[in-house]
Design goal:
The structure is a single chain. The chain is an all-alpha fold and 174 residues long. It has 7 helices and no strands. Helix 3 runs antiparallel to helix 4. The longest helix is centred in the C-terminal third of the chain and has 30 residues.
Length: 174
């Protein structure tokens, strides 16, 4: 069964306020602590018992963590802050709906993740392409120096495209 609902402007405003709180918390915390808290929150979840809408987004939380920890990707500071605030919100068990409430406790986390992931879609798409290129380069016969140079060029191109697309999306939203 599929259930859909529409968020009204006042609902979006509540999520925006929660995002601002998460942003403020992320600014005051060390990134490694944020990642550790997100990993702990993931470990505490019983994934098999979680509703499907939550399981789909949990995969994305894991992807965000990998992206932050990927030194080769070297995610720029502004995007790192966006990812960190997403992880802060996810890690907070006492957010809009306490996480320990059966079935619905993670509903707000799923909604917030969906909203933030839509905003970061260009970042995630660029990272996926970077990972695919890295895998191809590793499979190739080129030496390590050539591979590193090719990967650095691809990273620069993808991150530039990621920023241009995000700016276009921001302008379209105005």
């Amino acid at each position: 069964m599929r259930v859909t609902f529409e968020l009204e402007p006042c609902d979006i405003e509540r999520f925006h306020e929660a995002r601002v709180r998460a942003h403020d918390m992320a600014r005051c915390a060390d990134e490694s602590d944020i990642v550790a808290a997100a990993k702990q929150a993931l470990d505490a979840l019983t994934i098999g018992a979680a509703p499907g809408y939550v399981r789909k987004r949990i995969v994305m939380v894991q992807r965000l963590i990998l992206m932050l920890e990927d030194e080769s990707w070297a995610l720029p500071k502004a995007e790192r802050e966006d990812v960190a605030e997403t992880l802060v919100y996810f890690s907070d068990p006492e957010d809009m709906i306490p996480d320990d409430l059966s079935v619905i406790g993670l509903l707000d986390d799923a909604i917030m993740l969906e909203l933030l992931l839509k905003r970061m879609r260009h970042v995630l798409q660029a990272y996926d392409e970077f990972c695919a290129r890295r895998a191809l380069l590793r499979a190739g016969a080129d030496g390590r120096v050539e591979q590193a140079s090719a990967l650095a060029r691809r990273r620069a191109t993808l991150q530039d495209r990621m920023r241009r697309r995000a700016r276009r999306g921001e302008l379209a939203a105005l």
